[in-house]
């Protein structure tokens, strides 16, 4: 597989410079309790404290700030169940462009409200990849807006890579493993590229919900697979991989570990109770995978990206 077209080290550095004025450099937290529980030394990159409450601000901003005035003239559009929707709405506001967002009709209320607050127009659709794409295509036809894919876009991937880059800068290149969740693979492929360029001896491992286990199948077969069924509390990880994310993941990720909803909720609860931080279910997936397989991570230094904190407080799973 060729990797000439992947975002290079320079492209990721340029993305970081581009978005830096608009994002938080989120802290890296540690927890003696969770170290003892896992048998490893853990470093949590708190993207739950990022602008919009999720890492997606990075990729959305990089994509939008890379557009020309001509591209921005008729606004921008995307489809997303929430965090990327907020990222594009937030980024559009920064550049004074109109945002048209397609959201599945079962998106979390907290995410819908946030998108509205950023001044975006929302159109709802049923929650299938096909319905999302059809709704966006209609919007592009009606408005002439520029479409930014939630993950299958190298500008988005380069932006997401900056979270792991900051983590590596902060903790040093002594990290044995970096863990991230996987949905469409924008964060995971960006994280894998950041590790490859900035800390080559660090391996990358993903966590995925059993109730949306397409990436683990794609990882085995080498082509984009669909999950046998989709039913999980981790609403941010429902989409299959993309044509741009899969090749990067195949080449740069060591393994993908699946976890049940019960394991996700237990990890989420640990983060809330022990670290006093609000993390959404999708963000707890890597910790759940680590705890489930702790024998294979024993005594290692592990970075974990806590991807977001946009959780509906009226519907907590505990």
Automatic annotation (TrEMBL):
Residues 19-308 form the Tryptophan synthase beta chain-like PALP domain. Its cofactor is pyridoxal 5'-phosphate. It holds the Pfam family PALP. Keywords: Lyase, Pyridoxal phosphate. Its EC number is 4.3.1.19. Gene3D superfamilies: 3.40.50.1100. One of its GO terms (biological process) is D-serine biosynthetic process. One of its GO terms (molecular function) is threonine racemase activity. Belongs to the serine/threonine dehydratase family. This is Threonine dehydratase.
């Amino acid at each position: 597989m060729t990797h000439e077209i992947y975002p290079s080290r320079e492209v990721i550095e340029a993305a970081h410079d581009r978005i830096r004025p608009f994002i938080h450099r989120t802290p890296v937290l540690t927890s003696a309790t969770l170290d003892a529980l896992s048998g490893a030394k853990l470093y949590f990159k708190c993207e739950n404290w990022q602008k919009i409450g999720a890492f997606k601000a990075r990729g959305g901003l990089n994509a939008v700030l890379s557009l020309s005035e001509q591209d921005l003239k008729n606004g921008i559009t995307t489809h997303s169940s929430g965090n990327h929707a907020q990222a594009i709405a937030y980024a559009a506001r920064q550049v004074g462009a109109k945002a048209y967002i397609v959201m599945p009709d079962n998106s979390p209320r907290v995410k819908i409200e946030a998108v509205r607050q950023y001044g975006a127009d929302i159109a709802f659709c049923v929650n299938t990849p096909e319905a999302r794409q059809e709704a966006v295509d209609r919007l592009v036809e009606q408005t002439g807006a520029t479409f930014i894919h939630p993950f299958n876009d190298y500008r988005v991937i380069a932006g997401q890579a900056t979270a792991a880059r900051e983590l590596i800068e902060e903790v040093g290149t002594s990290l044995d493993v970096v863990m991230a969740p996987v949905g469409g693979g924008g964060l995971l492929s960006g994280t894998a590229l950041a590790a490859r360029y900035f800390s080559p001896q660090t391996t990358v491992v993903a966590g995925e919900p059993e109730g949306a286990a397409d990436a683990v199948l794609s990882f085995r077969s080498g082509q984009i697979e669909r999950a046998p069924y989709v039913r999980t509390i981790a609403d941010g990880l429902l989409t299959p991989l993309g044509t741009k994310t899969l090749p990067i993941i195949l080449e740069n990720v060591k393994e993908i570990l699946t976890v049940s909803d019960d394991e996700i909720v237990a990890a989420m609860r640990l983060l809330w109770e022990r670290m006093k931080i609000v993390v959404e279910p999708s963000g707890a997936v890597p910790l759940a995978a680590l705890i489930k397989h702790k024998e294979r991570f024993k005594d290692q230094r592990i970075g974990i990206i806590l991807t977001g904190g946009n959780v509906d407080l009226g519907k907590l799973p505990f």
